[in-house]
Amino acid sequence: MAKGSKYTPEMIQKLQEQSPLNLETAKALAETDMFKEAGITPKGIVAKVRTLGLEYHKVERKAKDGSVIVRKDEIVAAIEAATGVTGLDTLAKADKQALKVLLDAIS
User: Which of 37, 56, 99, 105 has the CB geometry, 3.0–4.6 Å to 75, for a possible disulfide?
Assistant: First the structure.
């Protein structure tokens, strides 16, 4: 027997009205009586928004110092672009700080 959705048409309409959503709006919606009584959490709201195909903006990850996180392979790609040398992908195994210093030195 198929289990019915705990999301009512009114809840779905509310999600559509709030689009585009982010984690903060999902938390605010989860605190409303409509969602609280149904036991729907902010994570549940985010999952439903994605299932419905509505626009959702993820929280951008930041480093401890507040800077944007850059992956090592992106730093290596920047080094390749700055030097004109290709095939440096094994550099991605190097220490991230060392890669940043190298990129700063050649830029």
Answer: 99
